[in-house]
Amino acid sequence: MQISAYDVGVVKEFVRGAVPVHVLHHAAEGGVHGAWMAAELARHGYQISPGSLYPLLHRMEHAGLLVSHEEVVDGRLRRVYEATAAGEQELGRLRQAVAELAGEVLDGSWRSPDRTRPSRPVRG
Hints:
With 124 residues, the protein is an alpha+beta fold.
């Protein structure tokens, strides 16, 4: 019986880790609010509840990656989040990490100039 990456939660963990990257990306493009962010994430296949999304936004704000303010839209108060300068710097580092991972995993094109490739174990 073969066990897939999904069965052991690897895909789920990868997607969970990608959510803050996605949030930071959109917050750097302009203000986002929770309902819009949840819909945007759902459009990409991420199913995240408000009970997970809003604490994530608050943690990112507490970490200095996001800043928020309140706006009144159609008579309702909405909290809007934007990336800070520190958030944009972190996003730059994340983009480099994503490019490295994608280059290596998808086509093997990425090679660090300061690292040698470890030898593979011999299976036998």
